[in-house]
Amino acid sequence: MGRLPNDFELAVFSVLWSEHCGYKHSAPLLRRLPSAGERVLQGPGENAGVIDLGDGVAIAFKAESHNHPSAVEPFQGATTGVGGIIRDIVAMGARPIALLDSLRFGKPDWHFRQAVAGVGHYGNCTGIPNVGGETVFDEAYAANPLVNAMCVGLLPTARVLRAKATGHGNALVLYGSFTGRDGIGGASVLASQDLAGSDEKRPSVQIGDPFRGKALIEVSLELVEQELVLGLQDCGAAGLASSLAEMAAEVGVDVHLDRVPLREEGMEAWEIMISESQERMVAVVAPERIEEVQAVCARWELPCSVIGEVTDHGELRAFMAGEVVGGIPASYLTEEAPRYEVEQTEHPIEQGTVDPVNHEPKTWIFEQYDHLVGSRTVRRPGLDGAVLRIDGTRVIAVSLDGPPVGERDPFRAGWAAVMESALNVACVGGEPLALTDCLNFGNPERAEIGWELARAIDGIAQAANELGIPVVSGNVSLYNETGGHPIPPTPVVGCVGLVRDVTRVPSRWQRGDEVLFLRGEGAKLVETVWRNAERFTLAHDVSDGGIELALREAADWSGIEASFATADGPGVIVALPAGETVDWPDLERLGTV
Fold first, then answer.
1. What count of other Cβ atoms lies within 10 Å of the Cβ of residue 417?
2. Catalytic status, residue 359
3. Among 167, 326, 369, 506, which is disulfide-ready with 9 (CB 3.0 to 4.6 Å)?
4. Average pLDDT score, the chain
C-alpha cells in the first residue's frame, strides 16, 4: 500500500487474508483439478458452480464446511452452515431445491445430536428438503467434528448471476437482517486457527434465523426474476468486507457504514465491516430501480438500505459520518492476496479402526429432516443417491460422500470419495455430470498436512479425469485440529447427475429377481451401472461394511428379506427380473429374492 494500514484496514486484512477467505495455502494446488466441460456455465471462482442440463435449465450447486463453529456451538454452527450454503446458491440466481450434509463426529453423543438438530432446523424452517448425505463416527473427529453441507438450486440457463459489480454509479443495496457483533472474527479467529481454547471462541459463532432466511430467499429470487438487480452477493465469512471486496475487484466501491442498519449500539466501523451477522445480501442496483427493490423488501418486512455505490477507483473504500475510515486496493484483498506453495513431507500411513456403530441403521438421523417439502423429491434418503424432479420426465440424482471409514491414505481418500459419490448417483440411474468438493484437513503450515492436502487433490483430479467430469465448485477447510492433533485427511465430494426418465429409476427388488454382484471399482463400473440402471429393479453400492451390510440395507429398503451367498470386495449389488443379466467381466450370481 506504500504506507502503514490503519486499524480499520488491518481488521479487513485480518479476515480476508485468513485461510478461510484467502485460500492462501490451497489455491495453487486447486488448479490441478479439472474444471472445464461443455456443460459448465460457471466454474470455480463464484459463489457456486453451474452446469447446463439442456432445454434452458441449469443447476447450481456447491458444498461448504462449518466445522469450527459446529465444534464450539454445534446447534448454531450447523444451522448457520446450512444457511450460508443456501445463500451461495441464491446469489447465483437459483432457487434452492435440496440440501445434503456430511457429518463426521467422534460418537453419536449430545454434541452430534445438537448438530443434527441444527441441520434439520434451518432446512425445515426454510422449506428446503434434506435428501441425502452421510454420517461417520470416528474418534479421530472427537475434538474437531466436521459439518459439511451441500445445496442444489435450479435456474434458467440465461439467468446465471455473478458477484462482480459493474456500472459506475450503480447503487449497493444491503437487505436482510440487522447487523450485530455476532460472528466477528469467524473467518480468522475461529475458522483459520487450531481449536484449542474453543470456549473463548464462542462469541465468533454466528447466530442463524431461518425464518428471516426464508424471506431472504424469496426476496432475492423476486428481485432476480424481475431483473431488478445487476449482481448479487451473500454476506458470509468476513461479512461486508468479503462481499464488497469481491464486488469491487474489477471496479471499486464506496461504502457508507453509518447507513448499515444495526441491532446493537456503539458499533465501530471495523465491527460493522467484518461482522458475520447472518441472513444478509448485497445487490448491485441501477439508481432508477432502487424504489422497486425497496418495495419488494418492504413487502417481506426485510430491512433494505442503500449503503454505497460502484466506482472506478479500484478500491474498497469505507466512510463513517462522511469521513474516510479506510481504503484498500480491492485486488490486494482478492487475486493479489498472499499465496503460498505448501511444503510437503510424506509420512507413514496407518489405517484407522472402524467403530461398529457406523454399521448400525441411521434412519433416526435423517428422520429429523423433511425430505418431501417442495414436491420435487422422487426418491427419499436411505440408499445411495437422492432423486429430484426437474421437468417432464427428467430428474437429477445427487449424492455427497467422503472417504471410507478409517481410510487414512490421502490419495485413496480423494479418489474413493469421488467414485463413491459418482457410483451413488449411477445406482439411481444418473449419468454423473459434475462434482463439488469440501476439503477438510489440519494445519497446512505443517509439511505432513501439506502433503496430505496435495495428495488428496491429486486423487480427486485423477478420479474426475477417469470419469470425464469437472469439479465446478468447492470449499477448503484447514486448521482442523486441536492441540496439534489433526483430523484424518477428509475430502468430501458431491456429485450431480442427470436421469432422463423418472419412470426408469431403480427402486426395490421384487420376489423372483436375480441378484448379481458386479465386483470392481472405478469409472467403467460407474458407466455400466448408470447405462443399465433402467433394467435394474434395485442397485446398491458395496462400500463400508462390505457386502453383508449392503445386502441387509437393500433388504430393509425393499421391505423383502432374502438370503444370499456372500462375496468380497467393492462393487455393486444389482437386482434384475429373472433370467436377465448384465455384461460385466467380473460378475457373481448371489441368488434369487
1. 32
2. no
3. 326
4. 93
